[in-house]
Amino acid sequence: MNDLHQKKTVQRLSAVIIAFFVLAALSVVVVYFVNPTIYAKVLKTDRYPFASTLFLIALLIFIAFLIFGVTKHWRWLFWIILIANSFSILEVPATILQLTGVIPDPYPAWYSLYRMGIAVLQFGIAIWMVRIYFQYGVWGMGRRKKA
What we know:
By secondary structure, the chain is mostly helical.
């Protein structure tokens, strides 16, 4: 990775994905305290039960693991993040259908719109990742040499 532009691309991509995961972690915690019934509906429990708290902790540990993987530039994680972010665009028509009443929406409208906004952001990151892949390879670190 001799090219300065390529190094900056790797740093920017990693920083954006890590920032997204940090904001996701903060979002998970804020939703837990602002409207814990969202977790209760998903887990079918009371407002602040042990299961919801355990789920929140497990989710935060998982996000920390993803952040660690991004800093280490794990190739397999690049593809998983790319696929997950690419398919997040399906949240947009699903939310529109929920808000128009075509399919049931168990969540408040603000939460559905929030999820839709995050999905658009994720899709933007996916497009950027694909462009970087075609230009520089996985994580912008060059293509793997064929043996």
